[in-house]
Amino acid sequence: MTAGKVSSELExxxxxxxxxxxxxxxxxxxxxxxLEVLDxxxxxxxRDIAFDLIxxxxxxxxxxxxxxxxxxxxxxxxxxxxxxGDAQHVVETLLADEKVTLEWxxxxxxxxxxxxxxxxxxxxxxMGSIPRGGTLTVxxxxxxxxxxxxxxxxxxxxxTQQMFAGDPPEDGLDARSVQLHYALELASALxxxxxADASDGRVEINARPRAEAAA
Length: 215
Fold this sequence. Notes:
The protein is an alpha+beta fold.
């Protein structure tokens, strides 16, 4: 980080853990609520509703954990590559209960681990640009990655614009912005520049080799 408050590696690790916990605590809490209903309520209709809540929430918690394992964790640490098919699967699972349709236009092949992790992080960033739902399109051409998001009110959040422009938050990272920081660190390690543009209900997030991005 070149401006604003500098975060240590220890702080960044803690913030990433907070981000994962934030993603998972919602569905886990819903599972607990559903179990409490089963313990306290004998009404058959309420019990059916509770079982549906538990099933849906357990599915969501599992999907979020699988996604975070690939996007943030050391999944596949024994090797230097990850299967794009695995990446597609965790994205599809993550979006199963969202108002977002996925169009996956990436080849089914193995890619360098950090490249796949960056792609998953770009998916998260793109999801944040269509809060009302829409369509995500994932495209790979050589070393260039693109995730586009189309939907009503599609826009690049201010914090995303700020950090992509190389201007980190003055007060330092938090559990939200740390994911952007992590994505930019992955891109830097791969020699890629990341940019986001929005127009006519569509947001494009591109990670391109530096020479190509500058051309």
